[in-house]
Every structure is written in structure tokens, then in C-alpha cells.
Amino acid sequence: SKALQITNLSKTYGNGFTALKGVSLSVEKGDFFALLGANGAGKSTMIGIISSLVNKTSGEVNIHGFDLDTQRSEAKAMIGLVPQEFNFNVFEPVEEILLNQAGYYGVGRSEAKVRAKQLLEQLELWDKRKNMASELSGGMKRRLMIARALIHRPQLLILDEPTAGVDIEIRRSMWDFLKKLNEAGITIILTTHYLEEAENLCRNIAIINKGDIVENTSMKALLSHL
Ligand code: ADP
Ligand code: ADP
């Protein structure tokens, strides 16, 4: 199966606005994939649907062979989501945020502690494990969101504008970390409106414009006709 297979996906919001107009897309296992598009193109809507935060209007979504309608919990377990906005309780200690998230996915406390330590070390947050999230810098909060998204060992990591508003040094170290994750076999899909980020990281891309996919190609092919 594919890491992700989307067929004829449409989304019309409650106010009648159609944000996705029957899009189809597939992403191979192991790929590093960019969903590129201007603000308002429909990127967040698409990944919201894939990660079960937004209901679709019609179409099909399959994640690692699991259908989002009929096998939702299996499909959800395959995915780690790094949303654009911080959405954790900032008055909770960093390590607790990870342990609670692990619990939410049924990972036992002692196993969760092992995983949390590993992730916090890799993401250079181990020294901050006892701090409340409110005490972290913007770049640290973003790394914490990545750690949280990985605690249940998903096969597919989805990041919404992962480095928006992050300074260049942190951005580079996040890029390095994501490259290593991908080399370790995790499929990565990120949204960005920042071509350099896609160019730096991604093998394949789709360009979304006003709810339609207007290009779906390799990064190499895209760059050769720019
Ligand atoms: P992107 O992530 O590419 O910036 P979004 O998926 O956030 O795009 O938004 C796509 C379009 O859908 C935009 O025009 C946005 O205003 C609209 N939209 C997003 N969320 C809602 C909502 N809850 N209700 C109505 N319209 C929405
Ligand atoms: P429920 O399935 O019980 O409705 P929610 O979707 O409300 O759960 O999610 C509960 C919390 O877990 C929220 O903070 C949400 O952002 C987070 N969450 C849900 N799914 C994921 C995921 N795949 N990766 C990371 N965080 C997630």
C-alpha cells in the first residue's frame, strides 16, 4: 500500500466555501513530500482531514492501507501531526506533555519514559524536561511539538508549515533532524509556502491552488523547468 492515497477529496465548510475540489494524490512509503501552495490554497484543510481533525465532505483517504472512514483508529495510529499552532497545555512540564500524549495512544508509562528521553535528547530539549512549555522559546516549542508527534512511533509524520517564524539556525537544525528521520524510514509530508524549504528537503511535491492540485511531480523535474 501507499503511505497516503487520497481519491476525489472534497471539502465544503459550513459557510458554503469549498476549500478542496475533488483532489487525488498519492505518496509512496519513505517519501519526503511537500504540499506547496499560497496562503488559503487548502493545505491545512487537506492535512486536517488526513489527521482526523477536519471532516471531509466526500472522497476517500487511505493511510498505510487503512481507510479513514472504516478503520479510523488504525489510520490515526499511523500518523503523527505537527500542527501550525501550539496546541499543548503550556502550564504542563515538557516531559509530562510527551508522557500524556503517549498515554493517549496506549503506550505504557515506563516505555513512554524511554521514548520521551530519546526524543528530548535528539531534539535538544532534555535540559528543559522539567520546565513548563510556557517557558520555552518559539523554536523549542516547535521541537516539542515534533517530539509529541513522534512519541507513538508513527509511520507518517505530517508537519504544517514546520519552520514558519523560526530563525535560520533553528530552521537548519530542524531540517537536519527531519532528514535523519526520513533516512530512518519515516515518510514525511510537510506543507510550506516556502520553495527553498521544499527544495532543501523534499523529493516529490504537489502544488495546490484554490483547492485544486495543479502540479504533482518530482522536485528535480519542477526545478528543471523553473
Ligand atoms: P492553507 O493551509 O493553504 O493556507 P486552508 O486550508 O487553511 O489553506 O484554507 C483554505 C481556504 O478555506 C481558505 O480560503 C480559508 O479561508 C477557508 N477556510 C479554512 N477553514 C475554514 C472554516 N473553518 N470555515 C470556512 N472557511 C474556511
Ligand atoms: P479524540 O479522538 O478523542 O477526539 P482529539 O482528536 O481531540 O481526540 O485529540 C486529542 C489531542 O491529541 C489533541 O491535543 C490533538 O491535537 C492531539 N492529537 C490527535 N491526533 C494526533 C496525532 N495524530 N498526532 C499528534 N497529536 C494528535
Number of strands: 10
Q: Which strand-content bin applies to the residues?
A: 25-35%
The first-to-last residue Cα distance is 32 Å
Name the bound molecules. adenosine-5'-diphosphate
Given helix and strand content, the structural type is alpha/beta
Overall pLDDT metric: 95
Q: What is the CA-based Rg, rounded?
A: 17 Å
Uncertain segments are: none
Lateral arrangement of strands in the main beta sheet: 6-7-8-3-9-10
Question: Percent range for helical residues?
Answer: 25-40%
Order of helices and strands: EEEHEEHEHHHEHEHEEH
Provide a count of the helices. 8
**Biggest sheet layout:** 6 strands, mixed
The shape is globular
Explain the overall architecture.
- With 226 residues, the chain is an alpha/beta fold.
- Helices cover 36% and strands 27% of the residues.
- A six-stranded mixed beta sheet has the order 6-7-8-3-9-10, with helices on both faces. It has a four-stranded antiparallel beta sheet with strand order 2-1-4-5.
- The two termini are 32 Å apart.
- The mean pLDDT is 95.
